[in-house]
Structure prediction request, 159 residues.
Amino acid sequence: MGSRLSRSVRLASLERAAAGRVPPHHTQEEDGEDPLQAAWEIMRPSMSDEHALLVIEAYAAWLGGGRAWDDSPGGRLLRRCLDAMYQWPTTHWPYSEIATEVALAMPPQVAEVYMRDPGALPLHDCGYKVPHQHFKVCPLCEGQVGWYAYWKRSTGTRA
Prediction:
């Protein structure tokens, strides 16, 4: 339990240190709201503490001029998290009706795939962007994944 507490304290400390700091190509909205921070606050509860810590450490290294985009597990996971956050809330139709908590989810089993497989690509399957080549069913809804699964589900067509 002591190791869990220190990890949690470290996570909170890194989150405070990185709060409000955004990548160089990212700009805040005119009203002062930071969409990247808002997206992280939605995504973070869906992640394990260990995965969130890896993302925060890679992000902090990036802000410090480090190589967060290297081929490390944390760098790969950060890249996928940022991909999802930058696409939200502007995801194109027909996926725009998908709940934000679903669109920005990063459950542990999905994070593990992104960390170990540099070629894993998130694709809209059932509505959630999941690396479908690694899953037989969606880790969120347990529905069918694969090409056109979203369309089959939304039109009632059977595979």
About this structure: DSSP finds seven helices and two strands in the chain. The two ends are 47 Å apart (CA to CA). The chain has a mean pLDDT of 76. The helical segments are 2-18, 35-43, 49-63, 73-87, 100-103, 108-116, 149-155.
